[in-house]
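Researcher: Let's do a round of design. I'm pasting the structure tokens now; please hold your answer until I've finished.
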């Protein structure tokens, strides 16, 4: 395809067994308008539309289904992909996911970007498959107002992808393994994905609402996660592990097993969040350093409002056998089942200026906790 085209509506059954793409965009600056055309790959294999090395291409108003991916773009810039239905492509369920799968082992789904920059993906539907939108080494893109709910791996996935804006997407009910999660998430951020803004997304009822980090990949640092709702997860509304300097602001983390799970993270900031009605802890932070928890509502969690913990026997990461230098201030911490703030083997931390009410105990310190300031 070398010129802009407005397609005639219809239902076209065209398989792509060799993976070269049914429609291949071979020129820059073209506009493809599907006018509601249905492109049906039939075999859950290959690609509906392929772009390689293109710039300034617009793709809109297609229905693309039953491929491995509906759209695959590689080494492209300044794309616009909007108002398409890219659902019912390759999917799976019932197995535990590899969070660090390389491009060659990627799950199937709606849009697959590899080394794509400065592009906009907006108002698309990409549901009922493994992944809605999958970004590999793709930077400074806008992913906005898409519906990537009801997938079986991840709604939106970032792998080694930086400075993207992920905004106002529907990424709820992304789950697998009979609803227990198996590392599914509304949004997944791994493998050195830095400085992304994740703003105002609906991530409810997913395996994890938001999942950042993994022990066996490069850390993902300095991301802003603001105004999202990750509630009703069977696991964690928000998870951010093995990372530094991420900020969670004004999110909703309720009715999950844990509101926030922050193991092995450093200098994470939680501010202005609602963290309530979680079955176990509102915030669980094991082996952490330099955390700031301020101005949050932390209430009616089953065990602890905030728990800082350390397992002295865990020497897998020798530089992180520590729980220290946390600040908990300005929060309302009330009606949690056991402790408002729980300190286990935690040192040099400050709990001050909070409003406590209705907890069984407000502050609990156990193990080798020392040099903490409580007031």
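Researcher: That's everything. Go ahead.
Model: Designed sequence:
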């Amino acid at each position: 395809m070398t010129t802009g085209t407005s397609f005639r509506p219809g239902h076209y059954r065209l398989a792509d067994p060799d993976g070269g793409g049914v429609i291949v965009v071979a020129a820059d600056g073209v506009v493809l308008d599907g006018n509601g055309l249905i492109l049906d790959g039939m075999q859950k294999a290959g690609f509906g539309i392929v772009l390689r090395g293109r710039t300034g291409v617009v793709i809109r108003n297609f229905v693309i289904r039953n491929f491995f991916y509906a759209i695959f773009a590689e080494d492209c810039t300044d794309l616009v992909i909007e108002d398409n239905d890219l659902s019912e492509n390759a999917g799976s369920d019932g197995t535990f996911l590899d969070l660090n799968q390389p491009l060659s082992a990627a799950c199937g789904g709606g849009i697959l970007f590899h080394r794509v920059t400065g592009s906009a993906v907006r108002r698309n539907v990409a549901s009922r498959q493994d992944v809605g939108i999958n970004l590999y080494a793709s930077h400074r893109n806008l992913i906005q107002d898409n519906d990537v709910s009801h997938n079986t791996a991840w709604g939106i996935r970032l792998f080694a992808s930086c400075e993207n804006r992920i905004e106002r997407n529907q990424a709820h009910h992304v789950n697998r393994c009979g609803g227990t999660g198996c590392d599914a998430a509304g949004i997944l951020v791994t493998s050195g994905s830095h400085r992304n803004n994740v703003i105002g997304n609906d991530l409810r009822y997913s395996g994890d609402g938001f999942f950042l980090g993994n022990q066996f990949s490069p850390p993902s640092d300095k991301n802003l996660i603001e105004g999202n709702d990750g509630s009703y997860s069977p696991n964690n509304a928000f998870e951010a592990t093995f990372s530094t300097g991420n900020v969670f602001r004004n999110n909703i983390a309720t009715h999950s097993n844990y509101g926030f799970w922050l193991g092995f993270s450093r200098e994470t900031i939680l501010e202005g969040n609602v963290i309530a009605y979680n079955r176990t802890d509102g915030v669980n932070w094991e082996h952490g350093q330099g955390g700031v928890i301020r101005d949050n509502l932390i209430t009616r969690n089953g065990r602890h409002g905030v728990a800082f913990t350390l397992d002295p026997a865990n020497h897998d990461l020798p530089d992180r056998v520590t729980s220290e230098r946390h600040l908990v201030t300005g929060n309302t911490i009330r009606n949690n089942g056991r402790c408002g703030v729980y300190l286990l083997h935690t040192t040099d931390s400050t709990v001050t200026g909070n409003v406590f009410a209705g907890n069984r105990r407000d502050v609990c310190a156990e193990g080798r906790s020392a040099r903490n300031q409580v007031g």
